[in-house]
Amino acid sequence: MLESVGALAGSPWIYPAVAASVLLDVFLPLLPSGVLVITAATAAAAGSAVTHVPDIFLLIVCAAAASVLGDLAAYRLAWRGGARLDRAIARSRRLSSAQERLGVALARGGGALVILARFAPAGRSVVSLGAGAAHRRAREFVPWSALAGIAWAAYSVALGYFGAQWLGASWLATGVSVAALFAAGVAATCLMRRPATRE
């Protein structure tokens, strides 16, 4: 599997693959979109060692744009979900809590929760669906979603690129970069849960 990911990262197909993976992982959080972005950035750092050298800026644009489009798709789906989705959210303590906290955060003009959720495992899905189900206005959610997508994409690409610069364009560099992305996800999850424990 690692060989096929590496081959994809060194081909022009990396851009649509990154875009599709990032867009769809709002619905299927198990998709390794972060791993794919980091691997592509590692290939960019490798330069002439790969067949096609991915462009760092284009990688960030693809990943960030796909992140926002995925968020909007989940948001609109939840907005139109109706009574069935409302009942599903009401049955889930996690979704109900996230919906309530997101509503408070957006009403106060702060979207740090949206940005943190982009880094937390499955957090993006919970927040996007919660915002749509709560019928939060798009102008309250979309700017924060865009900022979150840019931050996540830039961080992921930087991890892959600079990891390869420091450790060499190898699977070790990719592994260390993926571990750093995972650590950011753990930290984001802890920060998202902290206000709930104080209440």
From TrEMBL:
Coiled coil residues, start to end: none
Major location category of this protein: membrane
Any Pfam family: VTT_dom
UniProt keyword terms in alphabetical order: Cell membrane, Membrane, Transmembrane, Transmembrane helix
Subcellular location, record wording: Cell membrane
Spans through the membrane: 29-50, 57-78, 141-163, 169-192
InterPro entries: DedA-like, VTT_dom
Domain named VTT: residues: 42-161
Annotated membrane topology: Multi-pass membrane protein
Similarity-based family: Belongs to the DedA family.
Protein name listed in UniProt: VTT domain-containing protein
